[in-house]
Amino acid sequence: MAVPAKTTDSSLTLKDRVATLTFERDDVRNALTGSALCDDILATLAWANATPEVSVLIVTGAGKAFSAGGDVKAMRSKADMFGGTPPEIEAAYRAGIQRVPRAMHEAEIVTIAAVNGPAIGAGCDLANMCDLRIGSEAALFGETFVNLGIIPGDGGAWFLQRLIGYQAAADMTFRGRLVKADEAKDMGLLLEVVAADALMKRAHELAAEIAAKPPQALRYAKRLMKLAQRTELPDFLDYCAALQSFCHGTDDHAEAMAAFLDKRAPSYTGR
Q1: pLDDT tens digits along 144-201
Q2: Same domain, yes or no, for 144 and 81?
Q3: CA distance 88 to 95
Q4: Phi and psi (nearest 5°) for 162?
Q5: CA–CA distance, 189 with 142 (Å, rounded to integer)
Q6: Among the listed residues 122, 115, 78, 269, the one whose alpha carbon sits nearest the alpha carbon of residue 191
Q7: Which of 4, 120, 144, 182 has its Cβ near the most Cβ atoms within 10 Å?
Q8: Where a domain ends, among 211, 235, 254?
Q9: What is the pTM of this model?
Q10: What's the rounded Cα separation, in Å, for the pair 89 and 54?
């Protein structure tokens, strides 16, 4: 069994190929700035990418919020990454919060956000960086940067419009309004909405279903989904052919075909 990465403000567990990262800073509503949560996310993703025993990562928050995003009190006092000259603040963003979208975008495992409560500002963007999002009835999304006279400095505008389209993303971004769980599902931000006490059970059910697939093929499929966003079709098809040739030579492919034809459950080894 692989040993999970060390975290400071989060708990990290691994069971049956599913890792769960839980933010444990309810005292600051799991804010990403002014805490070690960004470092925890980065350490977890680096560990998961390098650990073949991980297929899926669930990200959630303990307490009332998924994540309140940035620390508004620190912004007001110009503390931490929010202080200094414009070039210094720019450098702080690049070396700080912007490491998270880069790492999330390069994650080789499937990521699921289990949104237990408000996901505001950078917290909303973090949820949108995941492949899938399940929310409790208490989930609340807000691309609220404009309300504070700033913009989504963590790349949120890039992720949001790719999920729900330009017009819906523009409406959320320009108005800085809050979106409740049912509307979030209707617009495509959430895959499902469940009762609060059923959120983690449903997240783990979904994760288990995905984690039961052949590990190599699953990571290749994730890689292709990301590559398709930035590659022209002829080049993309060439890459698909190359990865497919690897898949055809794996033990798991042979096992999948045998299980299908024998009408039995497969047993994959990741080889």
Answers
A1: 999 999 999 999 999 999 999 999 999 999 999 999 999 999 999 999 999 999 999 9
A2: yes
A3: 10
A4: -75, -20
A5: 11
A6: 115
A7: 120
A8: 211
A9: 0.95
A10: 36
